[in-house]
Amino acid sequence: MAAPMLRWGCRGRRWAFARVDGGSCHRRGAPTGSTSNQIRGESSVAQQPLHTAQKTRKGEHKWAAVVGLEIHAQISSNSKLFSGSQVRFSAPPNSLVSFFDASLPGTLPVLNRRCVEAAVMTGLALNCHINKKSLFDRKHYFYADLPAGYQITQQRLPIAVNGSLIYGVCAGKKQSQVIPKTVRIKQIQLEQDSGKSLHDNLRSQTLIDLNRAGVGLLEVVLEPDMSCGEEAATAVRELQLILQALGTSQANMAEGQLRVDANISVHHPGEPLGVRTEVKNLNSIRFLAKAIDYEIQRQINELENGGEILNETRSFHHKLGCTMSMRDKEGKQDYRFMPEPNLPPLVLYDATSLPAGADPQQVINIDQIRETLPELPSVTREKLVQQYGMLLEHSFTLLVMDVKNRNPRAINKLIGLVRKATQSRADPVMIKEILEKKLSL
Amino acid sequence: MLGRSLREVSAALKQGQITPTELCQKCLSLIKKTKFLNAYITVSEEVALKQAEESEKRYKNGQSLGDLDGIPIAVKDNFSTSGIETTCASNMLKGYIPPYNATVVQKLLDQGALLMGKTNLDEFAMGSGSTDGVFGPVKNPWSYSKQYREKRKQNPHSENEDSDWLITGGSSGGSAAAVSAFTCYAALGSDTGGSTRNPAAHCGLVGFKPSYGLVSRHGLIPLVNSMDVPGILTRCVNDAAIVLGALAGPDPRDSTTVHEPISKPFMLPSLADVSKLCIGIPKEYLVPELSSEVQSLWSKAADLFESEGAKVIEVSLPHTSYSIVCYHVLCTSEVASNMARFDGLQYGHRCDIDVSTEAMYAATRREGFNDVVRGRILSGNFFLLKENYENYFVKAQKVRRLIANDFVNAFNSGVDVLLTPTTLSEAVPYLEFIKEDNRTRSAQDDIFTQAVNMAGLPAVSIPVALSNQGLPIGLQFIGRAFCDQQLLTVAKWFEKQVQFPVIQLQELMDDCSAVLENEKLASVSLKQ
């Protein structure tokens, strides 16, 4: 049915939905080997779906995995979060560094309006409550790529809280049913990115590039409502689409504009949650899914063999296909959070609270931003289904297409396949319009 | 000419009685003569002369920039000055040459002021004596004044007259000494817990602390971001007002500045009478450690206002006794945070160790900071630990709010201005001062001044009279937030009433060579 088209359209690409059926919870056609986690899913919209390991030994308990994500998205803006230096990828090292970025003594942060707007837009798109007052804090740790010795973030009171992200999971016979799953969004906060360290082991030195230091980030915290690599990958993919549709972040993982850390634990259903580990440095959707599934299986194996799980940070080594403990973190870090004294509370307004005669350059109106939000992927998909008679799962695929890929041959081929798949119900002209409109974003 | 007020000199420049270059050279010459005071860390001779030249051109063309054009000023060495070394009197920043000017420095330069140099301070502005910087302590010019020397002759001490030289107070001691010794007409200090007002009182100067948010902190190397302000040291209130007029105003580079309207030019009206004024005397400031002389002057000042028709009432600031401890927690916490950037990577001192980043950080910071700084960093980090944060930092913030409310309540009860001592006593000899450590001294000396920083209010120390020892004693006025103009107006009236004597340093000029000899001995006794 839909299978050939899907595979062609998305070879090596991110998928917009996960397959949850009697088969395996991993990408069809991609080799998984021993790192795969054969988990059967239930077609439900439960917040915390239960999964059972297919390969259960006789008499063993079932396992449930719990996955939460911390996603850092670089804000698409001309200048950095607190200083006027430019934001650009691949510039010569240390060419985009202001005095503030280099932490020269006496320099002070000045908040970038565009970054705040990006945070509000993203919060609204993710159904969050936007805090009319939010605060900035300092998070202290010593590292060469953090010139000030602290990062400015929002720990006490972030700009947006309590939202949700809906992603689509394919289920049922022949993948024809798409089941929406929801992951709760704990919060979205504004924070600074750090510089980059390049370790030159040959010469026993580390090279520091501060171009990225101070770039604005949106940290989006996803509650542990996911249960396997595919769900996490799907959720991330949907978030990418949303951010790209909003224009608030290009969310390109390969360029480091989107970084994901996963918090993973396993437990027996009905029992308390297990000890969680944090897996960092996942810089592609594929590795994200792989790493999570590996870690889940590792934890299960460890516990089944009578071991214990340490509350630690691990990094994913994609060549080996496994996670390894990051030994340089001795014990838990105390970040000594402190309010950022150089930034007053960030106050946002809406139509009712906007002070009369306020300078529009100096205030942000949440309602105004809400009115000017671009069309979100879920709405586009809905349109495709309602107005163009497309099947829901096809709408997912269309929106998955990388906006950078403007290959006309591919588009035509895709149109042909859609027509074929929809038994010519969808008008090719309309499909082309949609594709071109989508690609011109 | 050097003894004149800013306003007078400015008039003289406009009238051509003296040229900026002549003025500049006189000051430079005096700076050289008074080098033993150790007031300056860097003397920017070339820069100043060049600025003087440009100023002269402007005056010739009748295009002077204003009251500050061609006026020599000095800047405390914790303000960033482009192209001029800025050390904060610390090994950590020795050789650090900033690429930008602090906003307040830029504003002064834009008005045509001549930058004579960067003045000495306690390391990173931590201290109340200007004794703990790496370039040595600053000597109070009053140590060499006729007024003090004559009194000393009556009580002969050691034969070596210079071993009993007095501290300037701190931490802006270098700026105070520079102005007091006539090497410049105004100097920038900083005030976090009294660092401008304290040395002003000890050196017989006007030391003004503006409202927090009135003057930009961009470029002021921070001690406590939520309490620091640039301070102004001058020989009279009018001069301070002129400088404030140039500096006050919002700065987009400093998000803590406010858009309060200030009338420009900043003119101080002359108060005809004070009958409409209400002066508040905080009863908690009458502490046992207060010297009888200061107390007596305080009392006389209150009487003066009353006799001239003002209403003088006692007020209560009930949380005063907690302010030292509260200040200590908040100050050290912010210090621990602000000092985290000094790791030797981008600028400043870097040690030779390159085994690992951690080792490098540790050695750099151990070498770069003195004990005082390191002590505060350790304390601050302790208070910021997760398990301590609520009990220390948050509690201190709450107490801070209570202290600030005390002032609000006092002002709401009809008080216009509070009158308090600035210091516990007159300046003490250096050898006596160093008998106690920095922390103890700071806790003692800041007692009247630091609550003001916690509340963000404007305050000014005015020199009132000489002590029995012939040394200056100052009193402090505290005003409502952003009522700096009113505060200075009252201060100006009071200044006129008390007619504080001018320091007599002629002997100093004559005795220069003799003192230079003795200076060698004094500088040996540096701590650690």
From TrEMBL, chain B:
Its main location: mitochondrion. InterPro entries: Amidase (IPR000120), Amidase_dom (IPR023631), AS_sf (IPR036928), GatA (IPR004412). The active site is at K76 (charge relay system), S171 (charge relay system), S195 (acyl-ester intermediate). The keyword RNA-binding does not apply. Allows the formation of correctly charged Gln-tRNA(Gln) through the transamidation of misacylated Glu-tRNA(Gln) in the mitochondria. The reaction takes place in the presence of glutamine and ATP through an activated gamma-phospho-Glu-tRNA(Gln). HAMAP family: GatA (MF_00120). This is Glutamyl-tRNA(Gln) amidotransferase subunit A, mitochondrial. It comes from Homo sapiens. The gene is QRSL1.
